[in-house]
Design a protein that fits this description.
This protein is globular. The termini are close together. Helix 3 (about 75-90) packs across helix 4 and helix 4 runs parallel beside helix 5 (about 145-155). An eight-stranded parallel beta barrel has the order 1-2-3-4-5-6-7-8, surrounded by four helices. The longest helix is centred in the last third of the chain and has 21 residues, at about 230-250. By secondary structure, it is an alpha/beta fold. It has helices at about 15-30, 45-60, 75-90, 115-125, 145-155, 170-185, 200-210, 215-225, 230-250, 265-270; strands spanning about 5-10, 35-40, 65-70, 90-95, 130-135, 160-165, 190-195, 255-260. The protein is built from ten helices and eight strands.
């Protein structure tokens, strides 16, 4: 595999989950990731678990990226968290607006991810490589496709180094997005986010929640398999491996896998992308 890869994990909630995630990471480290990222719960609700997982990855000798959400945050709390991450040895952040958790009455002192990016740059200079999110199929809360592009450009102008996309199954949407942001003068690498297909019900639920489009032919094929898990996984591997191959052939700068704390599907997709 001659394309950089990275893997995303979410912080486990139990000791058993933490042990399983260690085994998953070790299996995926064989593919020499550029970095591994750990997600951050709504309003920072998983901060302790996120920081613990990031620390473990660093101790395992792999670069770790910490997701960093500004929803519900103040400048003071962000400043404290940045200092803690720097002391830990973190060199890369995934800077996001994030989701407002239920029960929160206010979004905090930052309105947009671009505000967070600008603040991090002002506070820490070039201490962190800053990743931001990109939405090839348009952010579900955006007023229009053009305003979404402008919002992405604002994050880059605020100091982002690169971007990771929401997952998608239509390569044309990704390539068009890259062309559109380049038209705006934005030249940072935009890495496709890849979601392996392991469960049709889980995929439908996630996609409905985050606005990722499942093409009709994929949705109908998955529905046709019913509870046949083996067929779902086999079909999913074929679809995602083909998507990755097209992205690689089209010049994508890397692949970022949303692993869902599982190793098998991601590892098999990467195996299929190896030269014969």
């Amino acid at each position: 595999m001659n394309l950089p890869v990275s893997f995303e994990f979410f912080p486990p909630k139990t000791l058993e989950g933490a042990g399983k995630l260690r085994a998953v990471r070790q299996a995926l480290y064989a593919h020499r990731p550029e970095f591994c990222s750990v997600t951050f719960g709504a309003g920072g609700s998983t901060q302790e678990g996120t920081f613990a997982a990031v620390r473990e990855i660093l101790e395992e000798g792999v670069p770790a990226a910490c997701h960093f959400s500004c929803i519900g945050a103040t400048r003071a709390t962000v400043r404290q968290q940045l200092a803690a991450l720097q002391a830990m040895g973190v060199k890369r952040l995934v800077a996001l607006r994030g989701d407002l958790p239920s029960g929160y009455g206010s979004g905090g002192e930052f309105q947009y991810a671009s505000d967070l990016v600008a603040f991090i740059r002002a506070e820490t200079g070039r201490a962190f490589h800053l990743e931001v999110a990109a939405y090839p199929e348009v952010h579900p809360q955006a007023r229009s496709a053009e305003t979404d592009l402008q919002a992405f450009a604002a994050k880059v102008q605020a100091g982002a180094d690169s971007a990771i996309t929401q997952y998608f199954f239509n390569a044309d949407a990704y390539f068009r997005f890259v062309e559109d942001v380049q038209r705006l003068g934005v030249a940072v690498p935009v890495v496709p986010g890849i979601m392996p297909i392991g469960s049709s019900t889980q995929l439908m639920r996630f996609s409905d929640a985050c606005g990722a489009e499942i093409p009709r032919w994929i949705r109908l094929r998955l529905q046709g398999f019913g509870d046949d898990t083996a067929s779902i996984k086999s079909f999913g591997l074929d679809v995602i491996a083909a998507l990755c191959e097209r992205l690689r052939a089209g010049g994508a700068p890397g692949l970022h896998f949303y692993t869902m704390n599982q190793a098998a599907a991601t590892a098999e997709i990467l195996r299929r992308l190896q030269p014969a």
